[in-house]
Structure prediction request, 308 residues.
Amino acid sequence: MQKIDIYNSLKKMVSDAERVRCDETLSAYTFTKTGGEADVLVLPESYEEICDILHFAEINAIPVTILGKGSNVIIRDGGIRGIVINLLKLKAIRLEGNCIIAQCGAAIIDVSRFALMHSLTGLEFACGIPGSVGGALFMNAGAYGGETADVLDHAVVADTSGSLVRLDREKLKMGYRSSAVSKNGYVALEGTFSLAPGNKEEIKKEMDRLTSLRELKQPLEYPSCGSVFKRPPGYFAGKLIQDSGLQGTRIGGVEVSTKHAGFMVNVDDGTATDYIQLIHYVQKTVKAKFNVDLHTEVRIIGEDRTAE
Prediction:
């Protein structure tokens, strides 16, 4: 199916045709401020719209890519073919007893603040994670000793055919930076977090402490994709990179942070290609020096730019 036909079909599936965009530059949708164009970008506002889009894509064999806040993704400079679904318009958060139900596009930081507002403890670790709820479910996001699996009761997802499925904690199979959502190609629509009553002042104190640590250690002043690499067994990626003398190494406009070696920052109009080349260079150097393989935590998606 041609791009224009996909575009026209999707406009009929959503309540506002302005939420379907052709040849949309994706750098505005990523924390690295890089990325090429999407053939067709759509911003659904309901689960029904998402399911309709997924069903349409499946029966027409159109590839689908899901984007949330774009905090842990590098989109190649050639962009993404097919349909890109951005979930950020679905961001409702509500309370049911000691459970918080949050839609996929809500920032996980906002969910942690909502928990604080209602004196619920368990999500303090998430107060500085820049991603969405959908992203947290996709990769079992975590920080400072806590992770999404610790507090997640169940999730609602859409499968590739556009059917809604409820998955409890066991079926979500959440591991280190992985889950059934990512492994099975599901679209996470909402998560239910089971929390415990706590002391509001103590919850805030812990969130303030973790926020201070993050601001002290992480290069928040530049665009980045967060921690680039997963933690190798028995090591810390940042320490390996630091001990390899790689801090300050730059390719194009992207640099290994001098503040935290586990981060790569866009300091001068860097491109996705700059990021990817620097990632490969760091992996090669660490392998040569320590014989340790670094595997990316950041998702690298899309296509390389074709030669003019």
User: Anything to note?
Assistant: The first helix runs from residue 3 to 11. The first strand starts at residue 20 and ends at 25. The chain has three domains: 3-86, 93-203, 218-301.
